[in-house]
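Researcher: Before we compare anything, I want clean individual predictions. No alignment, no superposition, just each chain on its own. First chain goes here; please echo the sequence and then give the structure tokens.
Model: Echoing the first chain and its structure:
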Amino acid sequence: QVQLVESGGGLVQPGGSLRLSCAASGFTVSSRTMGWYRQAPGKEREWVATIIPGRGTTIYADSVKGRFTISRDNAKNTLNLQMNNLKPEDTAVYYCRCGSLYWGQGTQVTVSS
């Protein structure tokens, strides 16, 4: 069955970087539209970035454009999110998503000095 497991979250200072990974099983990441979402305390879950099958076209929310990069590692069957120049407002639980049905359990990212 489809399973998504995120990792790589943690505590980082403003301006720092983190790399999140989402290990997928039950399907190949290169064949599905995959995305990252996040949910801050007291707020609704919001979309962060998407990567589309085929050419691997990427799309980003305005709030992260130029700082975050979504990518796939086909050999490892993982979805990644490189996050640079992190800001306190990036603090949230980050989730990966496959298509419209499947979600991972989330990984906490905290940006604080």
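Researcher: Okay. Second chain, same rules.
Model: Second chain and its structure:
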Amino acid sequence: VQLQQSGGGSVQPGGSLKLSCRTSGDVFSRCKMNWLRQAPGKEHEYVSQTDGTFTTYGDFVKGRFTISRDNAENTLHLQMNSLNIEDTAVYYCVADCWDWGERFWGQGTQVTVSS
């Protein structure tokens, strides 16, 4: 199973970035899709999850991020607005495929917010 991430980069505080994660149709339709992040020296932190019907966000998001699915392209997106320095982290696309008893990870993408 491959989760191919794209997007990310560097932005000033208050800026926006969009992350994408493309995978196979089987994974996309059967698994809960997540975004997690890991800041330097910290544990992984939950950002958002969608199963196609329900979406949830970590408390720190406060309406700034939007998770979405492009079912035609089997692609998960994370639109991040009003970024602040504390959002600097490596962001991971994660597929929870509990039907198979597996969790799959994308390669991670760096998001850096600095002035």
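Researcher: What stands out in the second chain?
Model: The chain has a mean pLDDT of 95. Additionally, The radius of gyration is 13 Å.
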